[in-house]
Queue: 2 jobs
Job 1
Amino acid sequence: MATCPECECEFDDPIVICPHCNVPLVNREEAEAGAGDGEAVDENLPAEGLVVIETTTDDTRVGQIRELLEESGIPCFLSDELFPTDPPPDETKVFIPREMVDDAKRLMRDYFIVNKTAT
Ligand SMILES: [Zn+2]
């Protein structure tokens, strides 16, 4: 199924040019593929190879997570650094490389459990 970017009409193969607008059709299903996985980790990201480990409005928590991850050698990136917007969004997403998700989750779980029992 292909869609005309101009008139939004949908056409089946083998039509590749919109007969109304005379523009090339785009494959919308391909563009939207990958959305809607029910995992805790949001994989629907523009930055390839990165996943969201945390979404929070708490700047202090963001700082703690970042410190924790970087101390452990896991590079992390914040959404307002990767995708600057004006004004910045209320919530900050913490991105890490996909292959380090398991380590990061374990670190965060240990870290926040320790903090909870200590207070
Ligand atoms: Zn069209």
Note: Confidence is low (pLDDT under 50) at residues 33-43.
Job 2
Amino acid sequence: MYESYYGLNSKPFQLTPDPSFFFASKWHKRAMSYLQYGLSQAEGFIVITGDIGTGKTTIANSLLDNIEDDIVAAQIVTPKLSPDELVKMVASKFEIDTLNKTKADILKDLESYLFKLHSLGKRALLIVDEAQNLPLETIEELRMLSNFQQKGKPLLQSFLLGQEELQPILRAPNMEQFRQRIVASCHLAPLTLDESREYIEYRLEHAGLKNDKLFSDGAFEKIFKFTNGVPRRINTLMDRVLLYGFLEDLTYLDEEAIKTVTVEVSDEMFRPEEGSDLTPKTPASAAGDNNGAVMTDMTEDGRVKDVQYYKTMLNELTDALDNAISHKIKLTRYIDNLLKKKYKTYVRLKSDD
Ligand SMILES: Nc1ncnc2c1ncn2[C@@H]1O[C@H](COP(=O)(O)OP(=O)(O)OP(=O)(O)O)[C@@H](O)[C@H]1O
Ligand SMILES: [Mg+2]
């Protein structure tokens, strides 16, 4: 929508992980090196953990994008698979027919498939994303799959990507056998202030922005403060910042502009007020921010008892909807003007004929 206004040839802050926009921050570079090291080892497990939205799936997609021809890769992103479902899913990802087959049959077919690949000089790689959702028994099943071997060389290598909750799962006492097969692991941290700025500039430039003075230094600081350097949060905010700049006809975005957008975004997403950090608040602490106006009362199991709390939530929702509507109105006006201009040009050209 705002692309042509800024002279961009694509949307710079899409939420879908796109390898062509891959930005190699210190941690992303390190995680990528671990994955590549893992590939060169051709055995064991590589584990990448990271906070929500820090770029795990992006890294996996970038790796898959550059993978060598002799590796046949499959990616699984499915929560809460049982061990049997995992086997089925892995087999079908490698295009093995699993219909009406027992687990034993599927495993046999999978083994023959892996042998066949090996005889063709190829090997299989399994990338398990969102691995924090896998039950322990399923991770154990993954380990069993890594036991398929040919002359001592494993036939299937796996990478596990998951949010922080994956760490305690792998630390569990009964996961020792799995742990011993981990060849490298790495944790993705959010971007620093400088990296956040470089990340934003990189994505804008990659999308074709020529104006390298679109944001003030203060604007970058504000963006960092609001997003804590988490790439997905940066993308969400930046998309709205660019929309705001376009609607308000701004060619320079300073701290004030970012502040306006962060307030809007906070309202819509029930995020903490501007200036505070982004740590999600419990209803009780949110109540504290309202000078005691909201008397939140919790039941023993942590549920909110107080109706007032929900009223405040509803008010926030109403504000957010109002905001969204006023944006829509602004946009409609803009499109209306555009159409009028086009129509005038059309009439002029017609009368010239
Ligand atoms: N290194 C990077 N280069 C470019 N874009 C990135 C990078 N890291 C993250 N992003 C962007 O941030 C957003 C979130 O990334 P991604 O989906 O990979 O995070 P995730 O860690 O897999 O999140 P989740 O924990 O929810 O699975 C995406 O829009 C992605 O494009
Ligand atoms: Mg992900």
Note: Confidence is low (pLDDT under 50) at residues 276-298.
